[in-house]
Amino acid sequence: MPGKRPDPASLADSQWDLVVIGGGITGAGVLLQAAQLGLKVLLLEKHDFAWGTSSRSSKMVHGGLRYIAQGDIRLTREALRERERLLCELPGLVVRQTYLFPIRRGQFPGRWAMTLVLWLYDRLARIRDHRWVSAKELAERVPALRHDQVEGAMSYTDALTDDSRLVLRVLHEAAAEGGAMINYAGAESVSGTPGDMQLVLKDSVTGARHTLRSRHVINATGAWADRLSGASARVRPLRGSHLFVASARLPVKDCLTVMHPDDGRPVFVFPWEGLTCIGTTDLDHGDDLDLEPRVSQREIDYLLRLVNTQFPDIHLTEEDIVSTMAGVRPVISSGKGLDPSKERRDHAVWTQDGVITVSGGKLTTFRVIALDALLAATLIDRQTHRRLLNTPRLFRQAPSLPAGLGHPLHAWPQGEALSEQVRWVLDNEMVQHLDDLMLRRTRLGNLLPDGGATTLAGLRAQICAQLGWDEARWATELTRYQRIVQRFYSLPAPAIEAA
Ligand SMILES: Cc1cc2nc3c(=O)[nH]c(=O)nc-3n(C[C@H](O)[C@H](O)[C@H](O)COP(=O)(O)OP(=O)(O)OC[C@H]3O[C@@H](n4cnc5c(N)ncnc54)[C@H](O)[C@@H]3O)c2cc1C
Q: Could you tell me the distance, in angstroms and rounded to a whole number, from the CA of residue 223 to the centre of ligand 1?
């Protein structure tokens, strides 16, 4: 990624082969694949890169046991194959992790059903990494877990990542391959016919509008896809929320799947960047999509009840919550009014008025989703699609990122090491606002109390010097950041909740 945000006016001087709208994992994946094909390609992001769902997922690069349980072998195989490739290509950012699925007497699925599922799961991934863990070993590994009725647990592996750092990594790779990108530049409208499309870009920094010309347009705006697709609504926005607590309050070394006592839904409790994460929920998101999603009091009560039932001696309360994070799944609706957890999670690509729209799917399968979008745009044919799907390496440029940035199992560094990482990020990653730095380039705002206020104060001189901010700009940015943290990443304030 080039260090400086390009001048939006200069983007209007070019005739693009492809403009990709949306800077989440899907748009970033399309940009990278298109750049590797030698196309002149530009990505537009209305807010910040990974501002949408791609910084708010459960951070798992996984096949997804629920898909296999629903009989969706194709989606599971696809996701497992991508998991194994990402583990190989991005060590330190995508990290193999032990998952534990406790089995209790009388509970479904039991030991033998899970053994069968995991045998198939491993086989699809071409590994063998599942085993039975006795009740005694489980008690040693997770002493705080409720142990009545426990027979043992199935142990298997999947992977964890830092989702917004994954998006940034893909964008760095795309830039090294010649792709262009800009944040805080939304597409307001798209018109024309394939081969001769026009887009109106609104620069959020200056408020100016510019008209771009491109042969093709791919709309990769996730939960917002219906706004630009020109077709009738297809996306069903479903919210999922997470709580972060200090690992000392809920210590886990493995990713645990525990069943909610009220509805039997599986919920993960897992270690992430020095904290413990609990999530997720799954419910229709009726809030304004122009605002960042936030956890509701109902979801907090639901997740705390899960923890306090499954870990009876922990007595977790709202006071223990360091931060919260909610995301909106762009789920392609079946139109049948299904229970949210029963809607399928694969992606869809459709074309209307010259715009190719791609939405749904998973973080894990971004490479496959990107190729499907390029195929629909007739930028590749079926043969090339097949060839690229089977190309072992997607990442071939190895841009020089600081080691350890976004390792999902390491706590963020402190002191001089942190200052070095921040220096690199500010020089290389188009940071426009404090929330870009604190919530997506680093995760300090999610991992530290009060959005990392104390650490941020210590970084003030460095940030102002590097970004050329004066006192007034710092004050404006700080107010903006504190408002965002308070409204969208903390416990819901009673007044806002009631509104
Ligand atoms: C709670 C939750 C947990 C999840 N857990 C996992 C998981 O563990 N593993 C997994 O593989 N997947 C997971 N997913 C799914 C995964 O996160 C999403 O499928 C994926 O992030 C979607 O990426 P996207 O790029 O399509 O959308 P987004 O990341 O939302 O990106 C769309 C972007 O488009 C931008 N945009 C909107 N309108 C415009 C416009 N007019 N002009 C320019 N830009 C615009 C938005 O600002 C946004 O940044 C989870 C999802 C949720 C909600």
A: 7
CATH number of domain containing 359: 3.50.50.60
| Residue 483 and residue 361 share a domain | no
Is the pLDDT reported for residue 462 higher than 90? yes
Q: Are 304 and 244 in the same domain?
A: yes
CA of 314 to the centre of ligand 1 (A): 33
**Helix/strand/coil (H, E, C) string of 117-140?**
HHHHHHHHHCCCCCEEEEHHHHHH
Is the shortest distance between the CB of 152 and ligand 1 below 6 Å?
A: no
Residue span of the structural domain in which 379 resides: 8-54+164-234+343-389
Would 368 be classed as within a structural domain? Answer: yes
Strand partners, 347: 360
State which of 182, 227, 343, 362 you would mutate to test the pocket of ligand 1, scoring each by most atoms of that ligand within 8 A of its C-beta: 362
Answer whether 155 contacts ligand 1 (Cβ < 6 A): no
Tell me if 407 is assigned to some domain.
no
Mode of pairing for the β-strands spanning 41-44 and 15-21: parallel
Which atom belonging to ligand 1 lies closest to the Cα atom of 187?
42
Ligand 1 pocket, residue 27 CB under 6 Å: yes
Is residue 350 located within the same domain as residue 267?
A: no
Note whether 235 and 359 are within 8 A (CB). yes
440 Cα to the center of ligand 1, angstroms: 13
Number of domains observed in the structure of the chain: 3
Nearest CA to ligand 1 atom 14: 57
Query: Contact 288/224 with Cβ under 8 angstroms?
Result: no
Q: pLDDT averaged over the chain?
A: 94
Sequence-distant (≥ 6) Cβ neighbours of residue 100 within 8 angstroms: 133, 138, 141, 142, 153, 154, 155, 254, 255, 256, 257
452 lines ligand 1 (CB under 6 A): no
> Based on the domain organization, do 370 and 276 belong to the same domain?
no
Task: For residue 2, name the pLDDT band (cuts at 50, 70, 90).
Answer: low
Please say if the pLDDT value at position 495 is more than 90: no
Q: Are residues 225 and 240 in the same domain?
A: no
497 has a pLDDT exceeding 50: no
Do 149 and 250 share a domain, yes or no? yes
Q: Is 58 in the pocket of ligand 1 (CB under 6 A)?
A: yes
Residue 73 has pLDDT above 80, yes or no: yes
Distance 471 CA to ligand 1 centre (A): 34
Asked which of 267, 297, 332 is the last residue of a domain, the reply is 332
**Residue 276, beta-bridge partner list:** 245, 271
Q: From ligand 1's centre to the CA of 12, what distance in Å?
A: 27
| Amino acid present at 232 | S
